[in-house]
Input
Amino acid sequence: MLKRAATYREIYDAFAWRVPARYNMAVDLCDRHAAQTPGKVALIHDRDRGEPRRYRFGELAELARRAANAFAGVGLNPGDRVGLLLPQTPEALVTHLACWRSGLISLPVSIALDEETLAYRLNDVEVALLVTDRARYPRIQRLRTRLPSLRIVSLIDGADIGARDFHADLARASPYHAAADTGPDDPAFLAHTSGSTGPSKAVVHGHRMLIGHLPGFDFAYEFFGQPGDLTWSPADWAGGGALSMAVMQALWFGHPTIACHVPPPFDPERVYGVLGRHRVGNLYMMATGFKQIRAAPPPADVKLRAVISAGEPVGAEMVEWSKGALGVGINEVFGQNECNFLLAHVPKFMAARPGSLGLPPPGFVASVVDAEGRELGAGEVGELACRSPNPVLMIEYWRNPEATRAKFKNGWYLTGDLARRDDQGYFWHQGRPEDVIRRGRRLIAPVEIEDAALKHRAVANAAAIGTGDPEAHDGIKLFVTLKDGAVADTAVTAELSALLAASLATDARPSAIAIIDALPLTSTGKVMRRALREREAVPDAAPSARRPPPAARAKAGPE
Output
């Protein structure tokens, strides 16, 4: 994939995209290895009890062929949408592979969504078949009359009234299946945006999605494919993040990955258990997850080689903690459902700039642009953009040409995130436009305040928002959650206030601090500052300091 070299410039300059005219990512991910090394382990299913179940490439490929035939046997045709409402399971991976090899389009849906959001997303793309399990099937039964396009439900743990038996259908299906002759731009995968900033949209990716992710994956994991490389992510497979940063690309390289569901609430010791049991060398986790696992010390059997994070900036404080506690720094990656691996901060190949998003990985051209798509100079804040075309970019928003057109201007894909470049070309995230805090003419990135708060011994996570005049943003409020065992008292608040006063410029210091039980998160683990702002906008809202606002307790709704 990438040329092995010591410096960023050498690696970057030696890379060139190679996108074939005909391409099927299921064949490239699985069938290629099944033909060459069928006995090699592809997937390790850690069921949290007993021995893990190991799936080899030959077996995985056969299951995908059987599933493709089973889906055709119940009347699905190329272009139909197949939904997955599953935790991390082998059946989820088999379903994706079956869809991609047969021209169907897969849509993973988070198991954490409430029923309104679930119905919205299934209806939005008119899912015809849904693969789920008995634990989640009652929700589908309650929604069934509201899902007019849903013709078939398939359960991975046995048939039920109105639902088929996934494994029984596969057992009856033929193990022979010719993969569809797809092109790189043929739709293969759908993922809804997280809704951290507004209404959720379905992002359409073609088979070239896999090709587009590969160089960034290889780069961020410091040359993936080394002896013993084994990936895992505790993140939900429902988004493109965990699938692309821990599953798909690892399989392409012929290395195994782990399927292990970690149910909420987030348990650091359980995460450490998986890492230690399997000697995981490559971990992908959202920034929120890293802030949560530092609540418990890592055991001695956790031996990581390379770690990446995405979703939100982790901040310099968390990087230093990771170096000391985990023995590795955190390679930070910026990406979206629409455009992943756009930037990467990998100190092994570039000068360390703690807190920055780094530089574009090989194959990517990034910039900061104004509203007309014109590039801005060093130090100027504008919209982070990716040069188009690029294999990693979405094809479109599902049946929404107007929203699709709005994301492209003057040869750039517009991320919607604000950033600036320093005089060395490194990118610094300034937040979403609606999240940036305005104090007079100055724009303050929430992460600047949050990173400072994380230096306090008792703080587990933090989120800062602008308050007061909705136009002037003349106040700042900081919400924090505490580590287990920490007591929410006036001493903690006073200490935190003193720490922030010593760490931040005067205009960036919070005017109020609230200690709450939990921050509102999207289904992919991003902090929903929008929910905090909405809570603050409600007149006379005065929940107890230790109780999160209703928006924080609710699952991600129809964003």
